[in-house]
């Protein structure tokens, strides 16, 4: 029987799979638009299922639509080792964010199958539903329900910009499973992801060993003023919601800089009403994203934002509403899983460094219910959530090989 001690995955096969998946839901500038619970999402899921079935995996689907592709172990009663990420994308997303982690998990199975290597623990490749949270907020929705952070009915009632609910759209595309969410127990979970930042590429490092994840808080701000003609309304008579949004945007930047270098903040999504060139905006709805590896810093940033936004609204005469639409605390990943990743990188001769994830990932929620850790590989210029997102094949290969050895070491090789 083959040994897994120095085994390498097929980097070309992994790359080809990524490129094949990228053909589904192509973007307008070389990336992907495969938003969750769209027809394109359903098509991507179907392709992943066919690939899994070709490898003899048993596919399970829970009530949130999360896909679990299981390779049996020598001990079917042993808790499985899970590995995966997500296949959904941003509306102007890249080809690698999330997809790399799911298909690297599949590549682990393909490598084990062709080498006829048996593990003690089963291995389950996971595609978590709605990690991105673009169409249905918040992000990491399915893994959040799995970890007990959100209620199932609450998740089903999340609505997109057109008023369609998550539950209805999940049923429409045919991926609403019967399996109770969170019923599966696991020995551990590993997730491979592109860094989505510039550190690894700038320093010429092959592998990021993720020890912590930043916490975040998403706030949705609604400013209501009065629509009026831009030409005939005197300046003292204006109640300009757009002006309020501009001043709060500046405030967000100032607050984030005050906690540099480890905190960040920005205004992301925004809607201006009525969005006409000759009408003073009467209403602005926009989101604020604050992140830090320190929970106290996040709390401080949110409190200062609320205080400052209230002052700005009062000065202009605007009505202000602030709603928290997403949040999670900073994450410390499991020491044993982190060690498995670091040991794998060292064994394979890849350069590596400790890194803190600046983005939210499904692993952040699953860490609440099972030992979890993440592997990261570089991405060009640190660019992500953009159709120009790019990685090199050797980076995906290195990340997948480290993932392979960490997963297989945790699952245990028989013989």
Helix content: 25-40%
Could you describe the largest sheet, including whether it forms a barrel? 9 strands, mixed
Helix-strand category: alpha/beta
**Overall pLDDT level:** 96
β-strand amount = 15-25%
Q: What is the count of DSSP helices, taking H or I runs of 4+ residues?
A: 12
Low-confidence stretches: none
Morphology: elongated
Element-by-element helix/strand order: HHEEEHEHHHEHEEEHEEEHEEHEHEH
| Estimated radius of gyration | 23 Å
Could you tell me how far the N terminus lies from the C terminus, measured between alpha carbons in angstroms? 7 Å
Number of E-state strands? 15
Key attributes of the depicted protein:
alpha/beta; 12 helices; 15 strands
Provide a quick synopsis of the model.
By secondary structure, the chain is of the alpha/beta class. It has helices at residues 11-22, 39-54, 99-114, 141-146, 152-156, 166-172, 199-203, 241-257, 295-316, 335-348, 362-366, 393-411, and strands at 58-61, 67-71, 81-85, 123-127, 188-194, 207-213, 215-224, 228-229, 264-273, 279-280, 283-292, 319-328, 331-332, 352-357, 372-377.
What does it look like?
By secondary structure, the chain is α/β, with parallel strands linked by helices. Helices cover 35% and strands 22% of the residues. The chain is built from 12 helices and 15 strands. The protein has helices at 11-22, 39-54, 99-114, 141-146, 152-156, 166-172, 199-203, 241-257, 295-316, 335-348, 362-366, 393-411; strands spanning 58-61, 67-71, 81-85, 123-127, 188-194, 207-213, 215-224, 228-229, 264-273, 279-280, 283-292, 319-328, 331-332, 352-357, 372-377. The strands form 3 sheets. Strands 1, 2, 3, 4, 5, 6, 13, 14 and 15 form a 9-stranded mixed sheet that branches. It has a 4-stranded antiparallel sheet with strand order 9-11-7-12, with helices on one face. Strand 3, helix 3 (99-114) and strand 4 form a beta-alpha-beta unit. Helix 1 packs across helix 3, helix 3 (99-114) packs across helix 12 (393-411) and helix 8 packs antiparallel against helix 9 (295-316). The mean pLDDT is 96.
């Amino acid at each position: 029987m083959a040994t897994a001690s120095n085994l390498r995955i097929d980097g070309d096969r992994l790359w080809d799979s990524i490129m094949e998946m990228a053909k589904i839901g192509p973007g307008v500038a070389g990336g992907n638009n495969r938003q969750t619970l769209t027809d394109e999402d359903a098509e991507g899921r179907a392709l992943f299922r066919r690939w899994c079935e070709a490898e003899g995996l048993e596919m399970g689907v829970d009530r949130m639509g999360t896909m679990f592709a299981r390779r049996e172990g020598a001990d079917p009663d042993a808790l499985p080792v899970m590995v995966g990420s997500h296949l959904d994308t941003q509306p102007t997303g890249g080809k690698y964010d999330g997809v790399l982690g799911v298909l690297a998990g599949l590549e682990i199975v393909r490598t084990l199958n062709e080498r006829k290597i048996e593990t003690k623990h089963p291995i389950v490749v996971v595609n978590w539903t709605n990690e991105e949270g673009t169409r249905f907020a918040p992000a990491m929705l399915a893994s959040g329900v799995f970890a007990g952070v959100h209620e199932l009915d609450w998740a089903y009632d999340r609505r997109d910009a057109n008023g369609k609910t998550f539950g209805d759209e999940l049923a429409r595309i045919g991926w609403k499973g019967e399996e109770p969410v969170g019923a599966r127990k696991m020995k551990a979970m590993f997730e491979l992801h592109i860094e989505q930042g510039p550190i690894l590429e700038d320093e010429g490092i092959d592998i990021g060993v993720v020890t912590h994840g930043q916490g975040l808080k998403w706030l949705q701000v609604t400013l209501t003023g009065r629509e009026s003609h831009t030409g005939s309304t005197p300046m003292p008579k204006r109640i300009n919601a757009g002006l309020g949004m501009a001043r709060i945007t500046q405030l967000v930047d100032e607050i984030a800089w005050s906690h540099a270098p480890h905190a960040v903040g920005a205004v992301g999504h925004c809607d201006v009403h009525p969005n006409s060139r000759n009408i003073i905006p009467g209403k602005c709805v926009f989101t604020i994203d604050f992140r830090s590896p320190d929970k106290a810093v996040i709390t401080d940033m949110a409190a200062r934002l609320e205080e400052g936004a209230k002052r700005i609204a009062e000065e202009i005469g605007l009505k202000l509403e602030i709603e928290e639409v997403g949040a999670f605390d900073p994450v410390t990943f499991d020491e044993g899983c982190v060690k498995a990743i670091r040991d794998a990188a060292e064994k394979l001769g890849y350069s590596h460094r400790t890194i803190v994830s600046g983005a939210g990932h499904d692993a952040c929620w699953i860490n609440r219910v099972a030992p979890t850790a993440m592997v990261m590989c570089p991405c060009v210029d640190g660019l992500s959530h953009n159709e120009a997102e790019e990685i090199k094949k050797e980076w995906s290969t290195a990340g997948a090989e480290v993932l392979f050895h960490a997963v297989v070491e945790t699952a245990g090789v028989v013989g």
